[in-house]
Amino acid sequence: MKVLSKIGRYFLMLKSIFGKFTKWKILKQLILKDIDTLIIGSLGIVSFISFFVGGVVAIQTALNLENPLLPKNLIGFATRQSVILEFAPTFISIIMAGKVGSYITSSIGTMRVTEQIDALEVMGINTYNYLIFPKIVALSLYPLVICISMFLGVFGGYMACVYGGFSSSSEFIEGIQLDFISFHVTYAFIKTAFFSFILATIPSYHGYFMTGGALEVGKASTVSFVWTSVAIILLNYLVTQMLLT
Amino acid sequence: MIEVQNIIKSFDGTKVLKGVSTVFEKGKTNLIIGQSGSGKTVFLKCLLGLFEADSGKILFEGKGLKKMTVQERSILRQEMGMVFQGSALFDSMTVEENIMFPMQMFTQKIDEEILERANKVIKRVNLINANGKYPDEISGGMKKRVAIARAIVMNPKYLFCDEPNSGLDPKTAILIDNLIQEITAEYNITTVINTHDMNSVMEIGEKIVFLKDGYKSWEGTKEQIFNTDNESVTNFVYSSDLFKKVREVYLKDEIGLEENKGADTGNTST
Known about the structure:
heterodimer; A: mainly alpha; 10 helices; 0% strand; B: alpha/beta; Rossmann fold; seven-stranded mixed β-sheet; four-stranded antiparallel β-sheet; 11 helices; 11 strands
């Protein structure tokens, strides 16, 4: 019953976000600030993880291709498929649930604890719109992060494979072009768009409705990470089921 | 003027406010006092519209809060200023930006006009060399001043303060109290202050409402509080030895005694 009430409150929150809009001049500043914090600020960690995980995927694939009859270009093929279909959109989104999600929950939660949200409400501001809408808009650029992650993942695989002596450059490039289905990229971006909405709204919900003090802000961030990850995994399953089967 | 008529508020079946009625007059500093858990904060939040009372009426200049349209409520909120217990300044903004924020949000004024008005209120609350500083770079007393400046920048009709001098040293607390009282008279605002600070009661209590267990137990002025025979009020206000002695001196004073013969002792309610 409690879970149902929370789900209901989440959807009511979504409705309120698109209620009374904040003045555009203020909203624009908030959106730019959130783009800087949530998108630009995540590029470093996403690039680092993507490059090295792409490399590890290539090495693992190469080490498991023991049969000499299997062509070496399969390393490039497997790396591309793993990175584009799952690693970049899903795995990076789980990492972002930790990085961006905790930031959103703790920043909104701290505003709640220090009565800053009450101060906004007393002024007659739609706090849902003021606090959450800019994050939704900023994270609509999240597919660009995933695009960079895809490129760096495959590039990391190439570097590890070629400089690790597992296959030649031409074999790897041939592999990443092999049986390429462009819809797989579309599918990855469709699910990324869903994930970006989840990344903006579930952590905001946990921050906005938290009660208590500093300790509870920490707890809310952890709970928010768990539920954002659960939602991403479930949605990933549903979208994959709908689009690829 | 704010008129409160018999408001009741419950949480999960527990009545926190059990029918409180009072009037907060314009141009006066109205204090709500009472022990922790007496319902002061809930009462203040009901006045602000952050909590909706289960029953009863809250009238702003004769107009009921519940009957107001969304637009009327929005206008009313812009006529309210609030000083929160922890100041509630926006961490990501400088002092100047915090004060300018309500004007940027709700007026069509150009940036120069907004800045001019912000500087005027900054000067009014005696904030020196703090414009470009962030809230975590200034003292508690300065934060309160910024909160007051932000609350009055839109020329509000109503000013609400929740424990405005909690966490401040006695000297700064008196400065803040006096500042609120001066601003109330200067701008002719209806000010409602939630406090447990007895110094504030003695300093600026033009009207005092004493809440006990969700009821209004007593109301009167700071002069009347010396003479009251309401046991709950005397037990609360004169709980410290210092205030007990102050009261004894006041009552023993010959002139005070003469003046107090037949004096008004406030209204006790049950």
